[in-house]
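Supplementary notes for students who missed Thursday's class. We covered one full example, reproduced here. Read the sequence, then the structure, then the short commentary at the end.
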Amino acid sequence: GDHPRAAGTCLSKGPPFFWFCLSCWMPAMAAPAGNPKTGGGYPGDVSAARQNGVSSAASHATGLDMQTMEWRSHLELYVNGRAVKLEGVQPHHTLLFVLREKLGLTGTKLGCGEGGCGACTVTVSHFDHVQGKEVHRAVNACLAPICTLDGCAVTTVEGIGTTKAPHPVQKRISELHGSQCGFCTPGIVMSLYSTLCKNQEPSIADIEASFDGNLCRCTGYRPILDAAKTFACDKHHCSKAPAGYDGTASPKAEGDALVCSSTSAILSSPEYAAKAADALPAAPRVPEDLRSPAAAAARKPLKVVGDRVTWYAPTDLASLLALKRALPEAKLIGGNSEVGIETKFKHLHYPVMISTAAVPELQQLCLDPATGALVVGGAVTLARLEHFIEMSISEQPQHERTRGLRAILDMLHWFASTQIRNVAALAGNIATASPISDLNPVLMALGASLTLGAAGAAPREVLVREFFKKYRTVDMKPEEMICSVHVPATSKFEFVKSFKQCKRRDDDISIVNACLRVRLSPVADGWRVDEFHSAFGGMAPTTVRATRLESALQGKVWAEASMEAAHAALAEDLPLPENVPGGMAAYRQTLAGSYLLKFYTMVSLELAAERLGGAPDLPPAPAVTARDVSATRSFLSEPHPITSGAQRFSVPSGGLQRSSVSAASGKDHEPTEETERAPVGQPLQHVAALSQCTGEAQYVDDLPSHRDTLHAAFVLSARPHARLVAVNASKAEAVPGVVAFFSAKDIGEKENKWGPALYDEEFFRRDTVTSTGQPIGLVVADTQEAAQRAATLVEVQYEDLGDLVLDIKDAIRTKNFLGKVLTQEDGDVDTALKAPDAVVVEGEIRLGGQEHFYLETCSAHVVPGENDELTIYTSTQTPMKTQKFAASACGIPYSKVVCRMKRMGGGFGGKETRTVIISSAAALAAHRLRRPVRINLDRDVDMWITGTRHPFYGKYRAAAGPDGLLRALDLELYCNAGFSMDLTEPIIGRALFHSDNCYKIPNVRVKGYMCQTNTASNTAFRGFGGPQGLIVAEAWLEHLATELKMRPEEVRAKNLYAFEGDRTHFFQTLERCPVQRMWKELAESSELAARAVGIERFNAENRWRKRGIALLPTKFGISFTAKFMNQAGALVHIYTDGTVLVTHGGTEMGQGLHTKMQQVTARALRIPVEDVHIRETATDTVPNSSPTAASASSDMYGMAILNACEQLNERLQPYLEKAGGNFKSAVHAAFFDRCDLSAHGFYKTPDIGYDWTKPDQERGRPFNYFTYGAACAEVEVDALTGDMRILRADLLMDLGNSLNPAIDVGQIEGAFMQGVGWTMIEETMWGCDEFPWLRPGTCHTRGPGTYKIPSFNDVPIDMRVTLLKDSANPNAIHSSRAVGEPPFFLGASAFFAARAAIAAARADAGLTGHFTVDSPLTPERIRMACGDNIASKFAAKCSRPRPSGFW
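Structure (token representation):
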């Protein structure tokens, strides 16, 4: 497969040929700047100068002897303003490695290692001697070879500010709640910082575009965007806050003060009123020795000889060509986006690398004054090209010569990311011959050519359309290189348009891209096609022309009749088998046809505009109806609307509680009579936000290594089901630096077993493997590099076993189920379904999994101590299980193992159990070797072995009366457990608990099946099965609404649970259920009725753009359903200066748990929140803690802390009275009076527990209470491509009396966007029958290149969040409700809104009635469900009724 940030991998088995990396650095020896008029250093006949320059260099190269050339062997590099002298630099090391491992600058994070998440973003500066100015760029440090930084100054997050003196960017992101887990934050800070270094007065649009290479899994992006926009020059033009979100009350007032915030309010705030240029310190200055022209001229070319790689960086074209002649096998390197991925993930080795970065002859960029042709040097970056074209178009915006430039620009805007474009070269993208290159189709269609140079040879001109010979093979000799690209200008009546569709707009490879060009001439009967050129990517092993299409249109009249033949010809040109690599055959063919329709419509409209614009003698253009004009629109080419957000909440008084049981009522959570809540209820910022913004917050991999620390790497199974015949580690053990290899033979059979519920897993597979990615062994070495390299050398011999069970379909066929079938039954389902007036529907829905994609991968650092002691630093939600299974694996008591966890870079359930594999393996090695051992999983390994959200299949029968009232539900749910049980039983159980959503159903029968498959064991994920049950409920309800001929919202409203007295199908009576009130309030505030009318009007006026709206409720049960897990402990120490240290069993993963606990502590002790500190979570202070999960941590640990504080308050009461309430004086006196100033608090959730083995009515009460919510989303889809945008999202959550509204709003927004990802974007893929192009049992989605989470561009244009007023919850700490998981399902409102838009498109195609779409509702599924003639033609040829998926 092809990588989105790489130029591509050469798989040719023929002779080696030259190719450029996608990336190309611009160092201090910068290029001629160029301008659209003069051509930047190559005046006159540009084509001749180009040829002569290459010819001269080629001739000169023959006389150069590389052995006698003078080379410089040291790097000239500055980091954070200081010169860096690197001893023993290795050319294959990246900038990120040097920053973290050599310089100790751990603020720059390793998130993915492939330039796809932005966590490693730094600012790279150099001095451009031609332009006479400094150039600042955001760059991915994980891809940048350290040698490419020669002559540059690097600025990291530590270099711009500290917590004591933060940079304005750091300060604003932290105080405006833009950092939660914080792992992505340094990269986001540096992206914004880089933008401001380039332009201190950016527009809001500039700022929103600048984050296209950064990902955040926690915040939902809105608060980051709000903080960034405070630096915009046009911030005062932001639209006003929506009605009802413009209150100004202070949260400190309490007493139901209505607090509102919005993007508009933030940007107009006096605090941020100053211009960015006035508020910002100066951009970093490139040091003088890098600025000096004399020093630059005297700088010799670079040659660095490393242990594994030799690096050359010539400074002129002749030397480069001479090197290439002498070393034809060498890899030419630009920014390392290709080679970095090949060496890191594919374990390829290139002993010689030659950088093209310092060759000024390759930096030519100009428009030929005579012809208007674009000339691009072989090392010109895409960012520079993009800016140049923008300037060129701005000078002649309507000129026909710029139409080709516009087509290039449209692609450049969406090419990879800002960080990649800042270093990537056009020539590299061409030379790698990627079949999905975004720019190659444009160049082919425009008739571009390449100038190839080689030592001693005349320059050779090759047309791009003739350059690609076969997959990854081009017409270029080993000694040749691309010196320049020549793109002809377009002429009068010549029209060009480029197209692209991908899974996500930001930083994603194309599924299909294309460029179409036509030259027309006016004739008597209309417009004749004189030339038609086409090029398509993603439709063949190379970028290809559609020659039949071109022939079909050549000489024809540009009219709809000609298009019918053109579509038929295009289908013949681009046939795809179902098993085509990449899949989606029907969709890809449909996209090609859709592009042709879009192009025809666009050209016809432009012809009409030409005639109306002052040329009435021209023939009339083909008619385009007003409805069909929408075909020309594209989310990619039209300006992105500026996003905005609004939030509102009330801060009540009272509602405080005691931890004790009331003697009078016997109820827990006894209320107090106090009214003042602060600091509880105040919207305080995350306690670690600023340290996260400055890079000072440490994560496990940031901790300094102890002396003699070793590094570990797993050896993982490569077969999905096989017997282990032999494991031979001899080659690995021979690698220098390798200390040991551990496998199942090194651990007892009992010690090797583990599992969260059932001990059905092994730390190291002993006899068989039942999935790829299972640990077989562990290599331990003195460096991570040595351990990982050695792990690839371990030889494993397999004997394949039996048939594979890879998905739910296979498991149902073979009855391969785990455990028992879980059932719940209430009422008489069969009788209700048979009622004569019942409206009964039957159907199914398939739900894909979801990768957690926490930004910090799983890691552990284990330090042995005396007497078999172990200290484990790890990123986990489960310190207790970490301690338990590490001790078990090592055969030592639990008491000798301490797990310490300060913070996680995200968890979302993915670190609830699966981290145990990593920490236990490292613990075993550290215990046996008596040396510290650390392991940090690469992103691809983490995504491969740790599992995902469970894929589900739901099969239902549901009934309602003619009045729309629900009568019965008969439901079967199947989930893909993977190879082991893990937490599958409680997950399928929670899905059953939530299969009613918020609807009263008199008769229910639900069953849950756990399917065992030969794939990674799936695990907990935010919602824990609840969202799967909820979305299935909405699927059958929508089906019923269609049959009843009612709007889904009408059916939903009719069946909502009542405020009091209704009972669920699992026999829990609902108390204070506000869902009917919330439905009414949200329907009114979201203007549902009026917007629905407007959407109907929009859909009637637009054939190819459709909108939909959906309003959904949600109900989520709070508590662990396993009774024993609902317990919590806390330890509170008061020190003699009056400050307080709190330790509790919960872990901080960005959700703000520690912040809320500090607020609870401060309120209980009546001290400032600044005097409360939480250091870490550790098993030696609070033992036996349950995992931080189930959204119950604030409830449980808040009560445990409150319990401890109540004990301390009771002890301190006499001293407080004597001290007049002065806490510090009282503490001081108590200490000298020998009063205990430490207390342990404990809490257990009362009156809950559910036993599946008992009869339904006797099983118990599974949940302490429920959190409720509702969402209304409006979505617009492009019915020709399947692309979509969320126009508006209104969210209403009942969080009782919120402990911290700012943190809770952040949780809501982040959960919503994560839910949007699950239902609309994110798709896991494993090799199975659905994906025959993948090897069975292999995981395809193992990084940001193949797996897409929502990006900044996917945020709703208008996002509004409200917390429900007057809904205190008596069952949780200080009348609050849990927030972490409940809002997640609200993201499904976008799914059902998009489904409504699809229904409108289907109606235009003559299709009515119910239809099924699966989740995620990707562009492929949207497009193929629209049912028009283009889609149906190709869908009819498929063997599957719906697009493939892994479930």
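Commentary. The longest strand covers residues 1105-1118. Confidence is low (pLDDT under 50) at residues 4-44. If anything here is unclear, bring it to office hours.
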